[in-house]
Amino acid sequence: MTESLHPNIEKEMAAYGYDGVVKSHCRMCHGGCGVLVYTRSGRVAKIAGDPDCPINHGTLCSKGLASAQLAYHPDRLTQPARRIGPKGSGKWEPISWDEALDTIAERIQHYKTGFGAESIVMGYGTGRDNEAVIYRFANLLGTPNVLTAGHFCYGPRISTSIITCGTNPIVDYENFPRCIMVWGNNIVISNPDEYKGESFSVALNRGAKLIAIDPRLTRISARADVWLQLRPGTDAALALGMLHVIIREELYDKDFVENWVYGWDPFVKRVNEYPPERVEEITWVPKAKLREAARLFATTKPAGIQWGVAIEQQVNCADNDRLLMALMGITGNIDVPGGQVLHQAPRIRNVGHFGAHRMLPDTQREKRLGGDRFRLAGQFAIINPKCVWDAILEEKPYPVKMLFFISSNPLVTRANAKEVYRALEKVDFMAVSDFFITPTAELADIVLPSATWLEMDYIGDFWKRHGYILARRKVIQVGECRSDHEMLNDLAHRVGQGEHWWPDFEQALDWILEPMGLTWQEFKKMDHIRGERLDQKYKTRGFSTPSRKFELYSTLLEKWGYDPLPKFREPLESPYSTPHLAKVYPYILITGRRLPGFFHSENRQLPWMRELHRDPVVEIHPETAKKEGIGEGDWVVIESPRGRIRQRAKFFAGMDPRVLSAEHGWWFPEKKDPGHGWEESNVNILTDNAYENCDPAMGATHIRTLLCNIYPEKNGGASHEG
Tens of pLDDT along 131-159? Predict the structure, then answer.
């Protein structure tokens, strides 16, 4: 299939012998980039950015360029398989799709009848645009338990923005902000959620002022007009300090505050508890630099805040998000060109509608694991992972008997990995749908071969808040791989949900598009559709909150029993909260640094990606390395109260000497033992998932900072525990 093409593409096809090109949209990370997929003899020969796409304008990252290496990898799981022998044996036998789905359906019916639908937990990772079908299947089954990354990734942004101003405020790069504050985010590496680094870079090149808040000297920090190098985990205190300056110096938008803010007086009272002098002691940021950043942001309009998961994977998760929205709101940068836009989606059936959330019975919704503890998360169908592990290991508040993970590798990506392993090892039955047999899949009973984005038709990005929906077109078929959407549509018929699904999943795409009067076949010829753009909608509609205002004082959090005002909580494990522990583990470890070629635990078997980054790396300040007897490139041991791992040392002077920065998501597909080295360098061996160290409303696990020690591996791995 060859679409209407950009000039010169036909010449390139002729020059290199390509016989076709398909326009589509990548999904190697959070997705959305337009691509041109060139084919030769029915196989993908080359992938390039689509210059006509309004999201990436022809740019494409290393992951997108390497997509064919994923699709055609020799270790790719290309047909269903059943485990032979005990869990972790590494022995599998191929079976048919019918046998695999019949087995899974029989197990679902067995546990639903014997223990209730809540004993079955569905799960997915950071997502392959499959969340809507997974929630639809779970809700119609009657289980309230869908285990996602949503407790500490993007879910908090959506949850807190809905209760604050109605929807997620997106930086309006296309109208060129005059000031951009990047907070705990490395957009040029991660291309997160609604954003692509290209738009950010263009805005800077047009002269936007830049404020960077990051413990590390990133490329963004190096380019910033003001860089605030805060102590890891103190973002809420820093935001409160900036708000203190803006309010005390009356730099806020008085008209917006007077007419559209709810809870101003109590909010100001809370902010007054965080003068710059106190904030400097907490955050290590000099008060003069804090004032400089606050003034620059408040007086340079329009302005936007670019933030990411670094501030959500903390005990202050929900309040971090709310405080950044407070900065946007009181400076008058909400829903204005070049500020933070509250986009409208096209007129379709959205993710919430497709997910059939209203069809989950109230009696089942009340059984959601952790729903009584983490009420903000529970309101948005999100659960804390430890609640699932406890229900497996301790059978409290009831037993979980079955797990079905789709595009998820929790053994490597969730906190306290040793506890995760015990739970996965104990659970009665587990199915996994993925591209490869990962460390998590090695513990499954059935594995299913999932299709890549190159192998499916789908409406891309219809869960995002940037206002676009995108046409993702199928290009190839590899083995017996099927999309998660097709697989769940098939499985749903086998467990009695047929009346709510479709004979073929293309009809589901038609159903999503029906309110616009379109079919999938018509939409796929259009590339993309965008919702109507209207600015300052609140002036005629108000905000979609209970008060109809921008809620600095959250009426819903108050209703659910939480502090309605944001505040700073010291991390449970830090030099200040646990000084006795800091004597044994004297360094603050940052986890989760983003890398260009990897997507969490994915892509480590792809040649181009692994050539970019062969080994797991921990950054260490040269002064600290000298003190600990560590040389550049040495294998070192990083140890926390929960365990130890090994990574290679890389000298990096762009951090405080008291801080280390380790990489996450590491396992070693080249190791052919069943565990693929999941314990060797997995930073989640070191992280904690204790409930008291989670955000009280959202349940976000505090994994971004912890206390650790570091020493050369050649010391023989002697424990530093005292």
Answer: 999 999 999 999 999 999 999 999 999 99
